[in-house]
Design goal:
The protein is an alpha/beta fold. The protein has one domain (16-303): Ureohydrolase domain (Arginase, Chain A, 3-Layer(aba) Sandwich). The chain is built from 11 helices and 8 strands. An 8-stranded parallel sheet has the order 2-1-3-8-7-4-5-6, with helices on both faces. Helix 8 packs parallel to helix 9 (253-266).
Length: 322
């Protein structure tokens, strides 16, 4: 949703499937886009008055064999073009996956678009993990734990992006929200590069409103393009078990909806990823349905419209009148 239009207006949404699992060692994430479609993602967004075009699933550039950087690069370049084309056409790209290495492509496409428009870019990373590992710091070697490091220009990621590549993403223009699991080498990099962090300890102490409000005020003041990358493991696994990297102590249902509602109200979100849904690990489509509900909240669904109350009124008064 762009800051130039009302956050309540209908938008053109470009749904882009990214059935990618070459960045992880856990099979099943390639079924994520199909599961979200089956759970009613297109209909949920269309019912809110948005014009949704399903562009189908992206096909990687050339054959993809095995896993690792070479396989991820083929997806990265194809996804980058799809996202850049959607933005150029005036749509909000919604890229659904698929493991988190897909964000190498989606954010590269956003970076190219933002550079062409001479507009700052800010990335809000809703995730249990920092995803700021390099090949040297990663204990697993899985690329889905490395996209932010690669996008921010850390060494050791050759030939991932099509040439000419835009300048790297500034680490200070990234904010990790909901962090609760980080590797030792990754922790040192995040601190050294001054990446913004709101971890679950901060959320436990202060809630989600104050930290997120500060982030959104910063983005609005810079008139930046806000890209949101939403990993399902941001949520507590009791709420959404369909992910290969579960970490206890994640966001609750109400916290997650509040975040989505605040993002919608800000009118700043111009591109979005939903990643790491693994239907093979899910319980009867439960996680996919939760993600569809949260996506609908980000794009404007409310349980009730919130009336403007007189100064002397209370929320309880409004409930009684309803």
């Amino acid at each position: 949703m762009t800051s130039e239009t009302s956050p309540h207006a209908g938008h053109r949404i470009a749904l882009i499937g990214a059935p990618i699992e070459v960045g992880t060692s856990e099979p099943g994430a390639l079924m994520g886009p199909a599961a979200l479609r089956t759970a009613g993602l297109v209909r949920a967004l269309s019912d809110l008055g948005h014009a949704v075009t399903d562009h189908g699933d992206v096909v990687p550039d050339g054959p993809v064999g095995g896993r690792g950087l070479a396989a991820v690069a083929a997806w990265t370049r194809a996804l980058s073009r799809a996202v850049e084309d959607a933005l150029a056409a005036g749509a909000v790209p919604l890229t659904v996956g698929g493991d988190h290495s897909l964000s190498l492509g989606s954010i590269d496409g956003v970076m190219r678009h933002a550079a062409r428009e001479r507009r700052p870019l800010f990335v809000l990373w809703l995730d249990a993990h920092a995803d700021f590992n390099t090949l040297e710091t990663s204990p697993s070697g899985n690329v889905h734990g490395m996209p932010l490091a690669a996008l921010c220009g850390e060494p050791g990621f050759p030939r991932l992006f099509a040439e000419p590549a835009p300048p790297p993403l500034a680490p200070t223009d990234v904010h990790l929200f909901g962090l609760r699991s980080i590797d030792a080498g990754e922790r040192a990099l995040v601190a050294a590069r001054r990446v913004g962090v709101t971890d679950m300890r901060t959320i436990d102490e202060f809630g989600v409103v104050a930290p997120l409000r500060r982030i959104l005020e910063h983005v609005a003041a810079r008139r930046a393009h806000l890209h949101v990358s939403f990993d399902i493991d941001f949520l507590d696994p009791s709420l959404a078990p369909g992910v290969g990297t579960t970490v206890p102590g994640g966001a609750t249902f109400r916290e997650a909806h509040l975040i989505m509602e605040m993002l919608h109200d800000s009118g700043l979100v111009r591109s979005l990823d939903i990643v790491e849904l693994n239907p093979f690990l899910d319980e009867r489509g439960r996680s996919a349905r939760v993600l569809v509900e949260l996506a609908a909240s980000l794009f404007g669904r409310r349980i009730l419209d919130r009336p403007t109350l007189p100064a002397e009124a209370t929320p309880g008064d409004a409930a009684e009148r309803g």
